[in-house]
Write a sequence for this structure.
């Protein structure tokens, strides 16, 4: 958007005209959903009590400095995902764009999201860089909806580095 264009008075006999232009650039961004990951910690004495007494229920501490966030386009939720899973009955306010999240060792996260076509997109990234990975579409794995069905569940076995996909439809995976 151009605010103004001014031509100053000539200060020399040169034949070139000089203009001062000022303005601003306006961006139209689509709506986004902002997800936040809040890491909890235990005080040292509470951690010790949990080790000594398995029935003890600790009180975790929420620290804002340990919070990470990532953004996802809201148009994905409009195109696909609302009311399509058993989760919509349990959590009717939750957009089903986020299908799976698992914190990994070393400050990493495995994240399963639904893309605009209804496919499941898996990201594996550091908590600090998960938003950038989503924005640049740095995908670790892609599951096509027509191959795994619309309703599926995930489970991760970190010791074997294996991601299990449980689906209600006949599974047809080929890598």
């Amino acid at each position: 958007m151009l605010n103004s264009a001014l031509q100053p008075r000539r200060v020399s006999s040169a034949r070139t005209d000089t203009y001062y232009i000022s303005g601003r650039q306006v961006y139209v961004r689509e709506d986004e959903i902002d997800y936040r990951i809040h890491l909890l910690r235990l005080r040292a004495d509470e951690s010790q009590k949990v080790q000594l007494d398995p029935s003890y229920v600790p009180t975790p501490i929420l620290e804002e400095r340990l919070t990470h966030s990532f953004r996802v386009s809201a148009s994905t939720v409009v195109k696909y995902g609302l009311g399509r899973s058993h989760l919509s009955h349990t959590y009717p306010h939750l957009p089903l764009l986020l299908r799976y999240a698992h914190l990994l060792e070393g400050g990493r996260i495995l994240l399963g999201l639904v893309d605009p076509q209804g496919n499941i997109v898996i990201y594996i990234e550091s908590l600090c860089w998960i938003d950038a990975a989503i924005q640049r579409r740095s995908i670790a794995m892609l599951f096509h909806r027509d191959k795994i069905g619309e309703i599926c569940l995930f489970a991760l076995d970190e010791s074997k580095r294996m991601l299990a996909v449980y689906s209600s439809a006949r599974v047809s995976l080929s890598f």
Notes: Confidence is low (pLDDT under 50) at residues 77-95. The beta strands are 2-6, 20-23, 32-41, 61-73, 98-104, 108-114, 120-126, 141-143, 152-157, 162-167. Helices lie at 44-52, 75-79, 87-90, 130-135, 145-148. The two ends are 48 Å apart (CA to CA).
